[in-house]
Amino acid sequence: MPKPLPNPPVRTSARLKEVRYEIRGELVRRALELEAQGREVVKLNIGNPGLFGFGVPEHLRRAVADNVSRSEAYCHQQGLLAAREAIAAQQRARGAQNADAARVFIGNGVSELIDLALRALLDLGDEVLLPSPDYPLWSAATVLNDGQAVYYPCPAESDHLPDPDEIEARITPRTRAIVIINPNNPTGAVYPRERLAAIVRIAERHRLVLLADEIYDGILYDDAEFVPLAALAGDVPTLSFGGLSKMHRACGWRVGWLSLSGAPAALAELERALDLLGALRLCANVPGQWAIVPALTGPDTSAPLTAPGGRLHESRRAVIEHCAQSEFLHLIAPRGALYAFPAVRAEALPGFDDVAFALDLLETEQVLIVPGSGFNLTARNHFRTTLLPPPEQMREVCVRIERCLARLAAARHPARQVA
Q1: Average pLDDT across the chain, whole number
Q2: Predicted model pTM
Q3: Domains of the chain
């Protein structure tokens, strides 16, 4: 009897060749190998507050615990009604026209809702305008739903703010939506009202949908002001995304939401599509939804962390001060969110490669960061670090980064001394 032939490798989707997510990619796998060898790695690759000692506010924990016995059945595919009413009330208080519980969808984190929204919107070859750098889930979800990602630049030279003219210049007959990430991940930029209003006018002229990723809406530093996009959009169809992961440090609970606003007649078909897609996955995690009402109606527990003297503020200050004194680094100070996005100055290290540097930093200093090119940025001179470690650890991380850069410079110029 002939020996059976070995099974060929299982073919995977061709779409995955265009998908990248370096936040949890090859560098993370190498970090796990180093940890298995007994080396301690400082993981600054992901905005995961619970790993750095940040806790969920106690009043949210109580709300979940008190309702565990009411969480054992599926809920409505859009989420618990009381939670959706609280989200809609928040949106209306912020100026969103026509925000209503009937047009709120709760999901297993904003990540799931981004995928559902793009699945509802896109046909093969439709284009989505995304910032560069972007949060790479937006690019991945666009590709995986048969769309094309088209990038508008948000360079450091412009304080990582978009130019409305650059956005409009990229619009084609296949463009369906403009994505705004504000406060921004990875750069920490917070968009001014006038800039947002100009983007709204572009969407109105070209009949585009606005997708507003506002998961960091209350994490602001100094005098930064968050302006909700829906408050400016009027009748322009707008999907506003928020959740418990960042503001309320509840990443593992996987609770996010999107709220539709704009002219009701323009939203009707999209609303039905989202309802269908939500029903296909039955419902979102029920226990965590009980925390939404107290989160949106209770005390602001983020402001003390971002105010002077607060832990996030002081860790941010440590990075800003280090970059100001660094021989190699330049930083546009983050005005919101949980990240810094330094650049390595070209004159200090010509030909710098962000991926090679990130690997070197991991191997030699046990610090895990994300290369800037992992955020769909063509330049190779940036990297992202979270601001979550305590200030003293953040300062130590900065010393390690500087030391690694100095070794790289010394390798290129052997006469140079490394401290």
Answers
A1: 94
A2: 0.94
A3: 14-54+304-412 (3.90.1150.10), 62-297 (3.40.640.10)
